[in-house]
Structure formats: C-alpha cells, structure tokens
Amino acid sequence: MLKYNFSAGPCVLPQEVFKKAADAVLDFNDLSILEISHRSKDFVQVMEQAQSLAFEHLGLQDKGYKALFLGGGASMQFLMCAYNLLENKAAYLNTGTWSAKAIKEAKMFGEVIEVASSKDSNYNHIPKSYSVPSDVDYFHFQTNNTIFGTQLQETPSVEVPIVCDMSSDIFSRQRDFDKYDLIYAGAQKNMGPAGATLVVVKEEILGKVSRSIPSMLDYKVHISKDSMFNTPPVFPIYVSMLTMQWLKDNGGISWIEELNNKKAGLIYNEIDRNPLFEGFVTDKADRSKMNATFVLKDEAHKDAFDQLWKDAGINGLNGHRSVGGYRASMYNALSVEAVETLVSVMQELERKG
Ligand SMILES: *Cc1c(COP(=O)(O)O)cnc(C)c1O
Q1: What is the pLDDT of residue 226?
Q2: What integer pLDDT is reported at residue 353 of this predicted model?
Q3: 302-311 vs 336-352: helix crossing angle, rounded to 10
Q4: Which residue's CA is minimally distant from atom 12 of ligand 1?
Q5: Cβ(291) to ligand 1 under 6 A?
Q6: CB 197 within 8 A of CB 185
Q7: Mean of the per-residue pLDDT values of the chain
Q8: Residues where N6-(pyridoxal phosphate)lysine occurs (predicted)?
C-alpha cells in the first residue's frame, strides 16, 4: 500500500500526475519524454502550456510578467534575484533558515537591511512591526517557512518592488499576486520533481543594475530565449505542467485552498485539543497551512507515537533538526484522508498514553 507522505519536499504529488509522467517516460508521441529535444515542437508546446497555466493560476496574464522555468533550485534564486536587482540596498525579512540563506547571498551584491527577524526565538513567529525603507531596490521575504511552519497571511504593503520566495506555498492559496514583482518557487514542494524552479517576473523591474551579469544568471537572457537559453529541465517542467493542469481541471486555487484549509483545520484542532501535544508556532495567526510543526509535551511518548504513525502507513513526519518534534507537510496533493489518519493516530496515543 502506498504511504501517506507528509514529507516537506520532495513530496507528495497527485497519483494521476505520476501515472501520466510514467506513461510519458515510455511513450510521448513515439519517443520517451526523456529523449526528446527541448527544441522539438512537442516540448515547446509543453513549455508554453506550463507558462500559461502558471499565469492563469496566479491571475497574471497580460500584466507585463514573464514566466521562466530555470535550473538550480530556489537556492539559485537567492543569488540570482540579487544579481539582477540589487544595485545599492535591499530589504529582507528574516523569518527562517531560507530567509537567512537568501540574505547571505544578497550581501555579496550590496547592502542588506534586515527589517526584522525572529531568529532569537528560533523563528517561532513572524515579526509584525517593521518598516521597509522607501529607497531600497526591493523587499524580499518568504511567504511560507517550510522548516518552522509559519506563513505570512497578508501581503505587506510597501512602496518598493516585492521579490518573494513562494517555494512551499505556491498554488496553495489565493494571494494578491499582482502586488509581487518577482515570484520564485522550487518545483519540489507543490508543483513537480526537484530540478525546475518557476520564476515569474515583471519585466519592467529588470535591466536597472549597472553590473554585467553572466548569461546563465541573467533573467533577461532567459526571457529573450523563452526559457530555452540552455537545455531546460525537460522532465521536471513536464511534470510541473501536469500538476498545474491537474489543479486547473479540479477547480484551481479556490478549490485547493478550501481543501488545504480543511486539512490545516483538522491537524491544528487536534494539536490544540490533545493534551499530549503542543504546537511550535507561538502566534496562531502565523500557523502555516502547508507545514504544521508540533512537539510532544513529554518525550517519554516518543517511541510509542513513532511506532503508531509508522504502523498507520505515515511517512516523513519527523521535524527538521532545527525544530525537533514533528512536521506534517500537507501540500496540495496530500489527501484529507491522510490528515484524518494522522489525527486518529494522535488520538490513539492519547487513549493509550
Ligand atoms: C525548499 C526551500 C528552498 C530551497 O529550495 P531548493 O530548490 O532546494 O534550492 C527555498 N525556500 C523555501 C521556502 C523552501 O521551502
């Protein structure tokens, strides 16, 4: 039996996407998707479809944005966005490990103003009171902190361009996407296999820095070649396209957001109700609907709990080493049934406790 996969990433994808992807490996218009040319008509169509689905889900068609599928992961974007956009200074919100990594890279290109940080409390909340200077080149933040389980609910209102890492909650909920000037997301959290990163960028913010940019790191070069400057990650892009198509066929972001709210409601309800557990995030308003982090109040229950969830067919529930405890990652393709199973295991532990 297939396991309920609560892994933080790479992670669960829809079964029907796996099936279509497997078929395409064997036969994609009489060749394997793994052997077709990225310049072939068939793949150009895949790329166009992937770009158009991304725009459609984000509501960004005809608004001056370009969509790219690049290699290098979201981590590459930490330096690439700074390389292309940071002339003097940039503002960063430090809400977790990924923010800190993005800040480290940006510092190589200019001054970084950390407007706020929750590092001193091990990132257990999202800082609320901060201001973003109006003379920075851009403001960078993460919408969802995969490791700590916090999520920004509202888009900060600022006067400067917004550059945002949405790796772990892209296509999971509605946001005012048109308030963002550059959105990036590694595929392996909510979209596809590792190896492709979606970048959606408003063209007008590019071309303003004075440094010269190596071709492979230059958004304008990738745009001019329609994301085919070099061989793109063909298979991850194909699977990402299938996942976006799956999302569209089922009703789009509004459909999945309701399911994601339901799943998050189930797990947080149990964390709050069950006397053996407590949530990691201190401000409930900051709780992530993608990654729920929680701990056992008494470590003496650890072995029993670990045995129970493993026996129930659950995979990938261990928390990140910097938080400990447990993390239930509930990306788009994770079923409500999977979360119900986890909740019943938590209740069983209480009964046996
Ligand atoms: C996983 C993750 C990353 C890193 O992604 P890579 O593709 O491994 O480079 C960056 N940001 C966030 C929010 C993530 O969840």
Answers
A1: 95
A2: 74
A3: 140
A4: 167
A5: no
A6: yes
A7: 97
A8: 189
Region for 258 from its dihedrals, namely left if φ exceeds 0, alpha if ψ lies in -120 to 50, beta otherwise = alpha
pTM over 0.90: yes
Question: What is the sign, positive or negative, of the torsion defined by CA atoms of 311, 315, 320, 321?
Answer: positive
Going from N- to C-terminal start, the domains of the chain cover 15-250, 251-352
Q: DSSP code of 279?
A: E
Structure tokens at 273: 């109700």
Q: What is the pLDDT of residue 258?
A: 98
Question: Quick one: pLDDT band at residue 1, thresholds 50, 70, 90?
Answer: confident
In the annotation, is 20 catalytic? no
**What single letter denotes the amino acid at residue 108?**
M
CATH 3.40.640.10 fits 15-250, yes or no: yes
- What gap in Å lies between CA 126 and CA 129, rounded to an integer? 10
**How far is it, in rounded angstroms, from Cα 170 to Cα 191?**
8
Phi, psi of 195, deg, nearest 5: 125, -20
First-to-final CA distance of the chain = 28
Distance CA(189)–CA(10), nearest Å, equals 6
Compute the average pLDDT of residues 18-45: 97
Of 146, 167, 288, the residue with max ligand 1 atoms within 8 A of its CB, to mutate for a pocket test, comes to: 167
Gap from CA of 350 to ligand 1 centroid (Å): 35
Q: What angle do CA 110, 114, 115 make, to 5 degrees?
A: 130
List residues bridging with 202 in a β-sheet.
Answer: 65
Pairing of strands 139-142, 89-94: parallel
Q: In CATH, which of 1.10.10.10, 2.60.40.3360, 3.90.1150.10, 2.30.40.10 is domain 251-352?
A: 3.90.1150.10
Residue pLDDT, tens place only, 180-194: 999 999 999 999 999
Residue 63: pLDDT band (50, 70, 90) is very high
Span 40-68, average pLDDT = 98
